[in-house]
Design brief:
Mean pLDDT: 84
Oligomer: single chain
Number of strands: 6
Low-confidence stretches: 177-185
Helix content: 55-70%
Shape: elongated
Strand content: 15-25%
Order of helices and strands: EEHHHEHEHHEHEHH
Distance between the termini: 33 Å
Length: 204
């Protein structure tokens, strides 16, 4: 535990971080700044200041899905830097690992992921040309296709990071986000957990 001696007070850094996490989680779940301020005994302006201090971007809820990607780690890092809400990018080896798992398990995760993607305003999908057409028919969200090659695509493809960055910037600046509700925010919180489950299954 990291402690700071400030005058006659001892301040715990861990306690501060825990409270900040709780404040932001309540705001994401739909609580107003005034409600959060009352809950934690702070001023509403303090909650507003925290959000401003940590803000990465404003705009639509964006998902990025891509496979098979050679530079998957770099693509994920770029998406995180841009503040993309949901990222699911993997290589051909990781894709084959998923295909080798239980059919029922993969199918259930696929359904969960499709449900998550429908909660986003824009889905950027990087895959073979045939899969792009299929996803556009399935999802109710706006789909921006970025073809990686003709089907069947069984080898990793290097994604141009500069081109992808320009695409993300364009999507974020040109579209207006849908109003968020507590229910949608809950779905967004689950998105990161679902992406983590895919990652864990690929590494096992």
């Amino acid at each position: 535990m990291k402690l700071y001696r400030i005058g006659d007070k001892v301040v715990s850094r861990d306690k501060l971080v825990d409270v900040l996490d709780e404040i932001l989680a309540d705001r994401e779940a739909g609580a107003t700044q005034e409600e959060v301020a009352r809950t934690y005994g702070v001023q509403r302006s303090f909650v507003s200041f925290l959000e401003t201090l940590g803000e990465i971007r404003r705009g639509p809820r964006i998902a990025l899905v891509g496979f098979p990607v050679a530079n998957a780690a770099e693509v994920k890092a770029l998406a995180e830097e841009k503040g993309v809400d949901f990222v699911l990018v993997f290589s051909q080896a990781q894709r084959e690992s998923i295909e080798g798992q239980s059919g029922a398990d993969v199918f259930n995760r696929l359904l969960e992921t499709l449900a998550t993607l429908r909660d986003h305003d824009v889905v950027i999908f990087m895959a073979s040309d045939w899969r792009l057409e299929l996803v556009e028919r399935i999802l109710g969200a706006e789909v921006i296709g970025k073809p990686l090659g003709p089907s069947p695509l069984r080898e990793d493809v290097e994604v141009d990071l500069e081109d992808l960055g320009d695409l993300l910037d364009g999507v974020m600046s040109a579209r207006t986000a849908k109003p968020r509700t507590g229910r949608v925010s809950s779905a967004l919180r689950e998105a990161a957990e679902r992406a983590r489950r895919w990652t864990e299954s690929k590494m096992s």
